[in-house]
């Protein structure tokens, strides 16, 4: 018998995060293109980002047939948040003329690169990267480098950069609770042995 789940955050009812999820406005529009393998991941931070941001959308798939519609949003200029040749560091001035449509592929690095390979229009977008990202709070995974952030952390840092007059720190509240809950469930000794 499976445990009852919250229909909004998809967490087990006794671990629902909805009370911690904000409803924040942003000038920047966020589009997350999520690889299908991430949908049922216990730490699905992309879902938390979309639930916490009023101007965000999550689309799941590998090949996005409606990519033109998703990217050509009137009044916005699309940018891909992903490292690569010619990528520019995000700055508050990046969205001065038109606000940005910040497109984020969500998945492992390998799966995110696959999304770009399968969707040439996505790969052709001008790329932006995070400048001086903070250390990740995602203490439950091994990362390829100090600059590797979860999708939610990357979005939060990008929004702080693009809209420095606002705080998006509240987006991280459910993420922090999720991480602490996972650590508590595995036990401090197991956490130290495998992740510390």
Which CATH class is shown?
Alpha Beta
Please give the number of β-strands.
6
What is the terminal separation in angstroms?
A: 34 Å
Number of separate helices: 7
Q: What's the average pLDDT?
A: 86
Provide an overview of this structure.
The protein is α/β, with parallel strands linked by helices and 196 residues long. It has a single domain (23-132, 144-182), classed as Alpha/beta knot. The chain contains seven helices and six strands; from the N terminus they run E-H-E-H-E-E-E-H-H-E-H-H-H. The chain has helices spanning 45-52, 67-71, 109-118, 120-123, 151-162, 172-186, 188-195; strands spanning 29-34, 56-60, 77-81, 88-89, 100-106, 127-129. A six-stranded parallel sheet has the order 2-1-5-3-6-4. Helix 1 runs parallel beside helix 5 (151-162). The longest helix is centred in the C-terminal third of the chain and has 15 residues, at 172-186. It is globular, with a radius of gyration of 17 Å. 32% of the residues are buried. The mean pLDDT is 86.
